[in-house]
Design goal:
Organism: Bradyrhizobium sediminis
Distance between the termini: 101 Å
Number of helices: 14
Protein name: Alpha/beta hydrolase
Keywords: Hydrolase
Structural class: alpha/beta
Strand content: 15-25%
Order of helices and strands: HHHHHEEEEEEHEEHHEHHEHEHEHEH
CATH class of one domain: Alpha Beta
Shape: globular
Number of strands: 13
Helix content: 25-40%
CATH topology of one domain: Rossmann fold
GO molecular function: hydrolase activity
Radius of gyration: 39 Å
Strand order of the largest sheet: 1-7-9-8-10-11-12-13
CATH superfamily of one domain: Alpha/Beta hydrolase fold, catalytic domain
Largest sheet: 8 strands, mixed
Length: 390
Protein backbone atom coordinates (compact mmCIF):
# COMPACT_ATOMS: atom_id res chain seq x y z
CA UNK A 1 0.00 0.00 0.00
CA UNK A 2 1.46 3.38 -0.88
CA UNK A 3 2.65 5.37 2.09
CA UNK A 4 0.78 8.45 0.89
CA UNK A 5 -2.45 6.52 0.96
CA UNK A 6 -1.78 5.41 4.53
CA UNK A 7 -1.03 8.97 5.61
CA UNK A 8 -4.19 10.28 4.01
CA UNK A 9 -6.31 7.65 5.73
CA UNK A 10 -4.74 7.96 9.18
CA UNK A 11 -6.95 10.87 10.11
CA UNK A 12 -10.20 8.97 9.48
CA UNK A 13 -12.05 6.33 11.51
CA UNK A 14 -11.46 2.82 10.22
CA UNK A 15 -14.16 1.59 7.96
CA UNK A 16 -15.76 -1.84 8.20
CA UNK A 17 -13.83 -2.97 5.15
CA UNK A 18 -10.55 -1.96 6.68
CA UNK A 19 -11.36 -3.76 9.91
CA UNK A 20 -12.23 -6.89 7.99
CA UNK A 21 -8.96 -6.73 6.07
CA UNK A 22 -6.98 -6.25 9.25
CA UNK A 23 -8.61 -9.22 10.82
CA UNK A 24 -6.52 -11.48 8.58
CA UNK A 25 -3.22 -9.82 9.62
CA UNK A 26 -1.14 -11.53 12.25
CA UNK A 27 0.09 -9.72 15.27
CA UNK A 28 3.59 -9.50 13.71
CA UNK A 29 2.39 -7.93 10.40
CA UNK A 30 3.65 -4.39 11.15
CA UNK A 31 5.01 -1.63 8.84
CA UNK A 32 8.56 -2.80 9.58
CA UNK A 33 7.54 -6.37 8.72
CA UNK A 34 6.17 -5.28 5.38
CA UNK A 35 9.03 -2.83 4.54
CA UNK A 36 12.18 -4.07 6.26
CA UNK A 37 15.13 -1.65 6.25
CA UNK A 38 18.02 -2.67 3.93
CA UNK A 39 21.10 -4.05 5.61
CA UNK A 40 24.56 -2.53 5.20
CA UNK A 41 25.44 -5.37 2.87
CA UNK A 42 22.45 -4.60 0.65
CA UNK A 43 23.30 -0.93 0.50
CA UNK A 44 26.98 -1.50 -0.28
CA UNK A 45 27.51 -4.74 -2.20
CA UNK A 46 30.82 -6.53 -2.02
CA UNK A 47 33.21 -6.89 -4.92
CA UNK A 48 31.72 -10.24 -5.87
CA UNK A 49 28.18 -8.85 -5.85
CA UNK A 50 28.47 -5.64 -7.80
CA UNK A 51 30.56 -2.54 -8.71
CA UNK A 52 33.40 -4.79 -9.82
CA UNK A 53 36.80 -3.14 -9.48
CA UNK A 54 38.96 -3.98 -12.49
CA UNK A 55 42.54 -4.70 -11.50
CA UNK A 56 45.66 -4.32 -13.69
CA UNK A 57 46.81 -7.72 -14.95
CA UNK A 58 50.06 -7.61 -12.98
CA UNK A 59 48.26 -6.79 -9.75
CA UNK A 60 45.64 -9.47 -10.32
CA UNK A 61 48.33 -12.10 -10.90
CA UNK A 62 50.04 -11.18 -7.65
CA UNK A 63 46.79 -11.33 -5.73
CA UNK A 64 46.93 -7.66 -4.83
CA UNK A 65 44.15 -5.10 -4.97
CA UNK A 66 45.10 -1.73 -6.40
CA UNK A 67 42.85 1.25 -5.87
CA UNK A 68 42.16 3.07 -9.17
CA UNK A 69 43.69 6.53 -9.56
CA UNK A 70 41.15 9.36 -9.36
CA UNK A 71 40.01 10.67 -12.73
CA UNK A 72 41.42 14.08 -13.75
CA UNK A 73 39.19 17.00 -12.82
CA UNK A 74 37.40 18.64 -15.76
CA UNK A 75 34.79 21.32 -16.06
CA UNK A 76 31.89 21.07 -18.50
CA UNK A 77 33.81 19.37 -21.28
CA UNK A 78 34.35 15.82 -22.47
CA UNK A 79 36.58 16.84 -25.38
CA UNK A 80 40.35 16.19 -25.16
CA UNK A 81 42.44 19.21 -24.25
CA UNK A 82 44.52 20.62 -27.15
CA UNK A 83 46.98 23.55 -27.26
CA UNK A 84 45.50 26.92 -28.24
CA UNK A 85 45.82 27.73 -31.93
CA UNK A 86 45.22 31.12 -33.57
CA UNK A 87 42.17 30.91 -35.84
CA UNK A 88 42.87 31.17 -39.57
CA UNK A 89 43.45 34.76 -40.67
CA UNK A 90 43.10 36.68 -43.91
CA UNK A 91 44.90 39.71 -45.31
CA UNK A 92 43.90 42.71 -43.21
CA UNK A 93 43.71 46.16 -44.89
CA UNK A 94 42.33 49.23 -43.19
CA UNK A 95 42.29 53.03 -43.36
CA UNK A 96 43.24 54.53 -39.99
CA UNK A 97 43.40 58.22 -39.02
CA UNK A 98 46.65 59.21 -37.27
CA UNK A 99 47.64 62.47 -35.62
CA UNK A 100 51.20 62.01 -36.93
CA UNK A 101 50.21 61.52 -40.58
CA UNK A 102 51.29 64.11 -43.14
CA UNK A 103 48.21 66.33 -42.93
CA UNK A 104 46.62 68.49 -41.61
CA UNK A 105 49.80 70.55 -41.29
CA UNK A 106 49.97 73.99 -39.71
CA UNK A 107 53.74 74.44 -39.70
CA UNK A 108 56.14 76.15 -42.06
CA UNK A 109 57.44 75.24 -45.48
CA UNK A 110 61.17 74.53 -44.94
CA UNK A 111 61.95 75.68 -48.46
CA UNK A 112 60.78 79.21 -47.67
CA UNK A 113 60.51 79.30 -43.83
CA UNK A 114 57.04 80.76 -44.37
CA UNK A 115 53.71 79.29 -43.22
CA UNK A 116 52.69 76.34 -45.34
CA UNK A 117 49.11 77.65 -45.54
CA UNK A 118 50.00 80.92 -47.23
CA UNK A 119 46.71 81.75 -48.94
CA UNK A 120 43.41 82.80 -47.38
CA UNK A 121 39.96 83.54 -48.78
CA UNK A 122 37.38 84.39 -46.16
CA UNK A 123 37.52 81.58 -43.63
CA UNK A 124 39.34 79.24 -45.99
CA UNK A 125 43.08 78.71 -45.91
CA UNK A 126 45.16 77.18 -48.63
CA UNK A 127 48.61 76.62 -50.08
CA UNK A 128 50.04 77.90 -53.32
CA UNK A 129 52.02 74.99 -54.76
CA UNK A 130 55.40 75.12 -56.45
CA UNK A 131 53.58 75.16 -59.80
CA UNK A 132 51.53 78.19 -58.78
CA UNK A 133 48.19 76.50 -58.26
CA UNK A 134 46.24 77.09 -55.04
CA UNK A 135 44.98 74.07 -53.10
CA UNK A 136 42.65 74.51 -50.14
CA UNK A 137 43.20 72.90 -46.78
CA UNK A 138 39.66 71.56 -46.42
CA UNK A 139 39.90 69.77 -49.78
CA UNK A 140 43.54 68.82 -50.23
CA UNK A 141 45.38 68.89 -46.90
CA UNK A 142 42.83 67.63 -44.39
CA UNK A 143 42.99 63.81 -44.72
CA UNK A 144 45.00 62.16 -41.94
CA UNK A 145 44.24 58.58 -42.93
CA UNK A 146 46.86 55.88 -43.44
CA UNK A 147 46.44 52.72 -45.49
CA UNK A 148 47.62 49.84 -43.29
CA UNK A 149 48.04 46.29 -44.53
CA UNK A 150 49.02 43.10 -42.69
CA UNK A 151 49.30 39.97 -44.89
CA UNK A 152 47.63 36.81 -43.62
CA UNK A 153 50.98 35.01 -43.31
CA UNK A 154 52.74 37.79 -41.42
CA UNK A 155 54.34 36.47 -38.21
CA UNK A 156 55.40 39.02 -35.61
CA UNK A 157 57.67 36.44 -33.97
CA UNK A 158 59.94 36.40 -37.03
CA UNK A 159 62.19 39.18 -38.40
CA UNK A 160 60.06 41.57 -40.42
CA UNK A 161 59.94 45.06 -41.89
CA UNK A 162 57.54 47.97 -42.19
CA UNK A 163 57.20 49.33 -45.73
CA UNK A 164 56.39 53.06 -45.67
CA UNK A 165 54.99 54.00 -49.09
CA UNK A 166 54.82 57.64 -50.19
CA UNK A 167 52.49 57.93 -53.18
CA UNK A 168 52.87 60.37 -56.03
CA UNK A 169 50.88 63.38 -57.18
CA UNK A 170 47.20 63.16 -58.05
CA UNK A 171 46.53 60.11 -55.89
CA UNK A 172 44.21 58.76 -53.23
CA UNK A 173 44.83 55.74 -51.03
CA UNK A 174 41.84 53.69 -52.13
CA UNK A 175 41.66 54.47 -55.84
CA UNK A 176 45.39 54.51 -56.58
CA UNK A 177 47.61 52.96 -53.90
CA UNK A 178 45.28 50.06 -53.15
CA UNK A 179 43.30 49.42 -56.33
CA UNK A 180 45.45 50.68 -59.22
CA UNK A 181 49.02 50.36 -57.99
CA UNK A 182 48.22 47.21 -55.97
CA UNK A 183 50.77 48.00 -53.28
CA UNK A 184 49.11 45.88 -50.54
CA UNK A 185 48.71 43.02 -53.00
CA UNK A 186 52.36 43.20 -54.06
CA UNK A 187 53.48 42.99 -50.44
CA UNK A 188 51.30 39.95 -49.79
CA UNK A 189 52.36 38.20 -52.99
CA UNK A 190 56.05 38.74 -52.20
CA UNK A 191 55.76 36.31 -49.30
CA UNK A 192 58.07 38.57 -47.31
CA UNK A 193 57.35 39.15 -43.62
CA UNK A 194 56.37 42.79 -44.18
CA UNK A 195 53.50 45.16 -43.38
CA UNK A 196 52.48 48.41 -45.09
CA UNK A 197 51.97 52.00 -43.95
CA UNK A 198 50.91 54.42 -46.70
CA UNK A 199 49.95 57.92 -45.49
CA UNK A 200 47.64 60.10 -47.55
CA UNK A 201 49.62 63.06 -48.87
CA UNK A 202 48.01 65.92 -50.85
CA UNK A 203 44.65 64.51 -51.97
CA UNK A 204 44.41 64.07 -55.73
CA UNK A 205 46.65 67.09 -56.34
CA UNK A 206 49.79 67.97 -58.29
CA UNK A 207 51.67 68.72 -55.08
CA UNK A 208 54.58 66.96 -53.36
CA UNK A 209 54.41 68.66 -49.96
CA UNK A 210 55.63 66.48 -47.08
CA UNK A 211 53.53 68.02 -44.29
CA UNK A 212 54.52 66.62 -40.88
CA UNK A 213 57.29 64.58 -42.49
CA UNK A 214 59.16 67.89 -42.90
CA UNK A 215 59.45 68.06 -39.12
CA UNK A 216 62.36 66.57 -37.12
CA UNK A 217 61.32 63.15 -35.80
CA UNK A 218 58.26 63.07 -38.06
CA UNK A 219 58.81 59.56 -39.43
CA UNK A 220 59.61 58.18 -35.98
CA UNK A 221 56.42 59.58 -34.48
CA UNK A 222 54.46 58.20 -37.42
CA UNK A 223 55.82 54.66 -36.98
CA UNK A 224 55.41 54.76 -33.21
CA UNK A 225 51.77 55.83 -33.41
CA UNK A 226 51.12 53.19 -36.05
CA UNK A 227 52.44 50.35 -33.87
CA UNK A 228 49.30 49.95 -31.73
CA UNK A 229 47.05 49.98 -34.80
CA UNK A 230 49.19 47.42 -36.64
CA UNK A 231 49.09 45.17 -33.57
CA UNK A 232 45.29 45.32 -33.44
CA UNK A 233 45.06 44.70 -37.17
CA UNK A 234 47.40 41.73 -36.71
CA UNK A 235 45.10 40.40 -34.00
CA UNK A 236 47.41 40.63 -30.99
CA UNK A 237 47.67 43.96 -29.11
CA UNK A 238 50.77 42.61 -27.34
CA UNK A 239 52.65 42.85 -30.66
CA UNK A 240 52.73 46.67 -30.52
CA UNK A 241 56.22 46.74 -29.05
CA UNK A 242 57.58 44.53 -31.85
CA UNK A 243 56.07 46.81 -34.52
CA UNK A 244 57.44 49.91 -32.76
CA UNK A 245 61.00 48.53 -33.12
CA UNK A 246 60.81 46.97 -36.57
CA UNK A 247 63.20 47.98 -39.39
CA UNK A 248 61.73 50.24 -42.08
CA UNK A 249 61.92 50.30 -45.88
CA UNK A 250 60.98 53.62 -47.52
CA UNK A 251 59.37 53.44 -50.96
CA UNK A 252 58.75 56.69 -52.83
CA UNK A 253 56.95 57.00 -56.15
CA UNK A 254 57.06 60.16 -58.27
CA UNK A 255 56.11 63.13 -56.07
CA UNK A 256 56.67 60.92 -53.02
CA UNK A 257 60.35 61.88 -53.31
CA UNK A 258 59.79 64.89 -51.03
CA UNK A 259 58.56 63.09 -47.87
CA UNK A 260 61.02 60.25 -48.60
CA UNK A 261 64.02 62.61 -48.71
CA UNK A 262 63.02 64.56 -45.59
CA UNK A 263 62.27 61.35 -43.69
CA UNK A 264 65.83 60.22 -44.40
CA UNK A 265 67.26 63.59 -43.36
CA UNK A 266 65.30 64.39 -40.19
CA UNK A 267 62.87 61.49 -39.67
CA UNK A 268 64.61 60.23 -36.54
CA UNK A 269 64.80 56.49 -37.27
CA UNK A 270 68.54 56.38 -37.92
CA UNK A 271 69.80 52.97 -39.04
CA UNK A 272 66.37 51.43 -38.58
CA UNK A 273 65.82 52.53 -42.20
CA UNK A 274 67.29 49.49 -43.98
CA UNK A 275 66.50 50.45 -47.53
CA UNK A 276 65.19 53.10 -49.91
CA UNK A 277 63.40 52.29 -53.15
CA UNK A 278 62.50 55.14 -55.53
CA UNK A 279 60.16 54.64 -58.48
CA UNK A 280 60.81 57.35 -61.08
CA UNK A 281 61.08 59.76 -58.17
CA UNK A 282 64.38 61.68 -58.21
CA UNK A 283 62.96 65.12 -58.98
CA UNK A 284 65.07 66.90 -56.40
CA UNK A 285 66.56 66.79 -52.88
CA UNK A 286 69.66 65.07 -54.29
CA UNK A 287 71.80 66.13 -51.34
CA UNK A 288 69.55 64.33 -48.87
CA UNK A 289 69.55 61.07 -50.82
CA UNK A 290 73.31 61.22 -51.34
CA UNK A 291 73.94 61.98 -47.67
CA UNK A 292 71.87 58.99 -46.54
CA UNK A 293 73.60 56.62 -48.98
CA UNK A 294 77.08 57.71 -47.89
CA UNK A 295 76.27 57.59 -44.16
CA UNK A 296 74.29 54.33 -44.13
CA UNK A 297 76.36 51.62 -45.73
CA UNK A 298 74.31 48.91 -44.01
CA UNK A 299 71.19 49.72 -46.05
CA UNK A 300 70.35 49.43 -49.76
CA UNK A 301 69.33 52.10 -52.25
CA UNK A 302 67.47 51.34 -55.50
CA UNK A 303 66.29 53.98 -57.95
CA UNK A 304 64.47 52.92 -61.12
CA UNK A 305 63.65 55.62 -63.65
CA UNK A 306 62.32 56.65 -67.04
CA UNK A 307 63.39 59.65 -69.09
CA UNK A 308 61.16 61.76 -66.81
CA UNK A 309 63.85 61.80 -64.11
CA UNK A 310 66.92 60.75 -66.12
CA UNK A 311 68.77 64.06 -65.73
CA UNK A 312 68.49 64.13 -61.95
CA UNK A 313 69.31 60.43 -61.69
CA UNK A 314 72.57 60.99 -63.57
CA UNK A 315 73.39 63.94 -61.32
CA UNK A 316 72.90 61.79 -58.23
CA UNK A 317 75.07 59.03 -59.70
CA UNK A 318 77.84 61.54 -60.37
CA UNK A 319 77.71 62.79 -56.75
CA UNK A 320 77.99 59.24 -55.43
CA UNK A 321 80.87 58.31 -57.74
CA UNK A 322 82.80 61.34 -56.53
CA UNK A 323 82.37 60.01 -52.99
CA UNK A 324 83.65 56.57 -53.95
CA UNK A 325 80.30 54.74 -53.84
CA UNK A 326 80.08 51.70 -56.14
CA UNK A 327 76.99 51.67 -58.35
CA UNK A 328 75.26 48.77 -60.09
CA UNK A 329 72.86 48.88 -63.03
CA UNK A 330 71.07 45.55 -62.66
CA UNK A 331 68.77 43.74 -60.25
CA UNK A 332 69.79 40.18 -61.03
CA UNK A 333 70.98 39.24 -57.55
CA UNK A 334 69.91 39.75 -53.95
CA UNK A 335 70.07 43.17 -52.35
CA UNK A 336 72.90 43.21 -49.84
CA UNK A 337 73.81 45.84 -47.25
CA UNK A 338 75.40 48.76 -49.07
CA UNK A 339 73.91 47.92 -52.48
CA UNK A 340 73.33 51.00 -54.67
CA UNK A 341 71.40 50.28 -57.86
CA UNK A 342 70.20 52.62 -60.64
CA UNK A 343 67.91 51.03 -63.23
CA UNK A 344 66.98 52.84 -66.43
CA UNK A 345 63.85 51.31 -67.94
CA UNK A 346 63.24 51.23 -71.71
CA UNK A 347 60.94 53.36 -73.81
CA UNK A 348 57.35 52.27 -73.65
CA UNK A 349 57.33 51.98 -69.86
CA UNK A 350 55.06 54.79 -68.69
CA UNK A 351 55.40 56.90 -65.57
CA UNK A 352 51.73 56.43 -64.64
CA UNK A 353 52.01 52.62 -64.53
CA UNK A 354 55.46 52.53 -62.96
CA UNK A 355 54.40 51.05 -59.60
CA UNK A 356 53.09 47.94 -61.35
CA UNK A 357 55.33 47.86 -64.44
CA UNK A 358 58.92 49.14 -64.43
CA UNK A 359 61.91 46.92 -65.31
CA UNK A 360 59.66 44.04 -64.25
CA UNK A 361 56.04 43.44 -63.37
CA UNK A 362 55.22 44.42 -59.78
CA UNK A 363 58.57 46.03 -58.89
CA UNK A 364 57.69 46.54 -55.20
CA UNK A 365 57.25 42.78 -54.89
CA UNK A 366 60.53 42.14 -56.72
CA UNK A 367 62.57 44.45 -54.48
CA UNK A 368 61.11 42.90 -51.32
CA UNK A 369 61.94 39.39 -52.53
CA UNK A 370 65.54 40.36 -53.29
CA UNK A 371 65.81 42.17 -49.96
CA UNK A 372 64.57 39.11 -48.05
CA UNK A 373 67.42 37.07 -49.51
CA UNK A 374 69.70 39.01 -47.12
CA UNK A 375 68.43 38.33 -43.55
CA UNK A 376 70.66 41.04 -42.04
CA UNK A 377 68.42 43.71 -43.59
CA UNK A 378 65.40 42.65 -41.53
CA UNK A 379 67.03 42.16 -38.14
CA UNK A 380 66.26 44.69 -35.43
CA UNK A 381 68.93 47.38 -35.32
CA UNK A 382 71.24 47.27 -32.29
CA UNK A 383 74.10 49.55 -33.29
CA UNK A 384 74.39 53.24 -32.49
CA UNK A 385 72.11 55.70 -34.33
CA UNK A 386 73.33 57.68 -37.31
CA UNK A 387 73.11 61.39 -38.04
CA UNK A 388 69.48 60.92 -39.10
CA UNK A 389 68.46 60.67 -35.43
CA UNK A 390 69.22 64.33 -34.92
Amino acid sequence: MPLSFVLVQCGKAPSAGMLAANAHATSGDTFEDRFPAPTFKERFPTTSEGLVLRQPPAAAAAGRTVQPAPAPYRVASLAPTVPYQRPPREDQTMLVGLKSSAFPYLGTNPRTDEPFLNISKGDRRGHRSYGGRVYWQDETYNDNRVLMHVPENFDVRKPGVIVVFFHGNGATLERDVRDRQLVPQQISESGVNAVLLAPQLAVDAADSSAGKFWQPGGLKRFVNESADHLARLYGDPRAARAFANMPVIIVGYSGGFMPAAWSLEVGGLGNRVRGVFLLDAVYGELDKFASWIVSNRSGFFVSAYTRSTRRHEHELMAILKEKGIAISDDMDGPLRPGSVVFLETPEGVTHRDYVTRAWTENPVKDVLVKMAATPALTRVATSSPSHADR
